[in-house]
Design brief:
about 140 residues, 4-stranded mixed sheet, mainly beta, 13 strands
Length: about 140
C-alpha cells in the first residue's frame, strides 16, 4: 500500500525534500518529493558520515542530494545533515546515515531495495524500517 503523508506536504512533486510518512505494512518511513523510498546502508559510517557505495553500487543506489535537507516534513531538523562524498558530491544524511534512493523503485512507495543485503528503508529518526510480523494488529505500529 502506498504511504500517506502524516502532514500536508508543501512544495512541488520532484522537489528535493524529505517527508515522514506512514506505510500500512511498514510503519513510519521517509520518502522524497517524488514519493520515492529513502534507504540507508549498514556498510556506511555515521560518525562522521561516510559512504561505502561507489562504482557499480551507484548504478542501483542513488545518493539523495544535500539540497533535500532544506525542506522537511515530519522530520526533526536536528537529525539531518550533509557530507561531501569522495566523488565531491554533497549527500544528505539522517542521524548520520547517508541517504539513498533505489533505481528499481519505479512507483511512489515501492520498497524494492528492502531485502537487499545491508539496505533498509529509513525511519524519520534514522533507524531501520523492519517488516511487521502482523500488520493487521493495532499495536503493530505502536498505535
Amino acid at each position: 500500500m502506498p504511504p500517506t503523508s502524516e502532514q500536508a506536504t508543501a512544495g512541488n512533486a520532484g522537489e528535493p525534500m524529505l517527508v515522514a510518512v506512514r506505510a500500512f505494512d511498514l510503519g513510519r518511513m521517509v520518502i522524497d518529493g517524488n514519493g520515492d523510498t529513502i534507504y540507508i546502508s549498514a556498510a556506511d559510517g555515521t560518525n562522521p558520515p561516510r559512504s561505502a557505495c561507489f562504482d557499480s553500487c551507484l548504478r542501483t543506489w542513488k545518493p539523495v542530494p544535500a539540497t533535500a535537507v532544506a525542506r522537511l516534513d515530519g522530520i526533526d531538523q536536528r537529525l539531518v545533515g550533509t557530507f561531501t562524498r569522495t566523488d565531491s558530491a554533497d549527500q544528505a544524511t539522517l542521524a548520520g546515515h547517508p541517504l539513498y534512493r533505489n533505481v528499481n523503485d519505479t512507483e511512489p512507495g515501492q520498497t524494492s531495495g528492502m531485502d537487499a543485503a545491508g539496505w533498509s528503508p529509513v525511519t524519520p529518526d534514522g533507524g531501520k524500517v523492519t517488516a511487521v510480523a502482523d500488520p493487521g494488529r493495532s499495536d503493530a505500529f505502536g498505535l
